[in-house]
Amino acid sequence: MAKKGKAAAAAAPAQPEPPAPEAEAPPAAEPVPPVSMVYCKVCSYPPEYCEFGAHLTKCKEWLKETHPDLFDKYWSDEALQTKVGTLSLAAQAKLEKDMAKAEVKAEAKADAAMKKKMASQVIIKRIERNKRKQITSVFGLEAFDVDLKKAAKQFASKFATGASVTKNPQGLDEIVVSGDVSDEILEMIENEVGVLKGIPVDNVELVEEKRKKGGE
Ligand SMILES: [Zn+2]
Fold this sequence. Notes:
Layout: H1 2-11, H2 20-29, H3 56-66, H4 68-75, H5 77-84, H6 89-119, E1 122-128, E2 134-139, H7 148-159, E3 163-167, E4 173-178, H8 182-190, E5 204-209
Parallel strand pairs: 1-5
Antiparallel strand pairs: 1-2, 2-4, 3-4
Helix pairs in contact: 3-4, 4-5
Pfam family, one: SUI1
GO molecular function: mRNA binding; translation initiation factor activity
Keywords: Cytoplasm, Initiation factor, Protein biosynthesis, Ribonucleoprotein, Ribosomal protein
């Protein structure tokens, strides 16, 4: 083997031995450093996809603060130049304007939804129909993205009683459950049982509707 190699080397003209094989070997042996994926804390996309989310301005602020290198990579003047280099100036301006508009709209929408949610009240009402019959109505769950039919089903099976979605006198949906289960429902909301998730207990009010004196 050694002899053969030597002979081959000797046969080659005065050229020095190529260092290539030796030089290439060490890097290949080195372990590849783990690639740590970065996800945007604002929109949860990888930063290169932030522009498809609805919070680009906030995304960019976050990225600049936490990953200045990535920020430069995606949002430096050069990066943007490359990206929109093929668009005309007018098209660029329009694109930016459209994006800003969409963003403002989305932010406003998210804001309004949050405000509505925070202001929304879930009202659990204990209603005394007569001495022997009480019902419990639950109003406002849909503001917290609770499926009313599913919630009614959950109450029915939990309390082994009747529960249904009906329209209240104001024409709005509410869940009516047979029997006085108001305390139990409040507890279920506190414990986020089943579909009753994400309802701040501060937004839940327990009220009582007594039979009017002299009525019935
Ligand atoms: Zn983002």
